[in-house]
Fold this sequence. Notes:
This is Deoxyribose-phosphate aldolase. Helices cover 45% and strands 9% of the residues. By secondary structure, it is α/β, with parallel strands linked by helices.
Amino acid sequence: MSVTVLPLAKSGHNALPRNEGMKLALDVIDDIRLNFPAAERRIAALPGRRSVKKDAQAAWLLKAITCIDLTTLSGDDTVARVERLCAKAKNPVRADLLEALGMADRRITTGAICVYHRFVATAVEALQGTDIPVAAVSTGFPAGLVPHDVKLREIEASVADGAREIDIVITREYALTQNWQALYDEMRDFRAACGDAHVKAILATGDLKTLRNVAKAAMVCMMAGADFIKTSTGKETTNATLLVTLAMLRMIRVYQSLTGFKVGFKPAGGISAAKDILNYQVLMKEELGREWLEPDLFRIGASSLLADIERQLEHHVTGRYSAFNRHPVG
């Protein structure tokens, strides 16, 4: 059996130019409108319009693995757990499955490892000799309510420990009260504190109440220099959904038309089934194009998703489903 896979990412992530941002354009923010019924119809029709099966499905799932930010953000995290997660990131699919798929000679890793600051140095050491970046959640994750100077110091500490990506959380109050200048200034400070590290802006869309708030907050963060916009911390009541994804992808498209910069997208929280990530991939390709299927522009915040993808690949190879405990993540 041999799978013709979508071309795997070139060596090294984050190869695209940084988003330098632009001046806050309140006229652009004020003009943002969303047709909610049309957006709902677009998402409802998505599963029926595209059906990815058999070898094609295996290929898309292998591509998804290269875009996963393999994550552990629990209160009981330990050095040993993070080390095991890093080992899985380096070899996310069992060797026998890759051989059966005709992919034994292809270098497949996850897109990144995502941890709290406490474990950045541990992950950097465990990933030495690879090009897998370490991402740190920061700025008082997940609520983002610590003092601003503490947020900046946390970013700087993670960068000093070797984090190449920083996932910040915005102050939701600014979006809820339409204080776009405050959100822009906050994001600019975060961008500056990151230095050369790429910055992903977590909007916590479940806390923002409306799609219009989501769209406007996404645009402000991109104007302030976010390299990625991300749906959720994974700790809100509602996390990533295809509906908020559509709103954010449309804003990425608008921002590209304004500046020429390509901003990445990261759904996170609640994405645990292989069949669900296929819908996200199709939506990315249809809305933004083929480039947004690569880890430079697409990341998936997940942990258990990898186990289900590996199960689906084993089913593709053997015709049988195996238990989750045969596919440990970390």
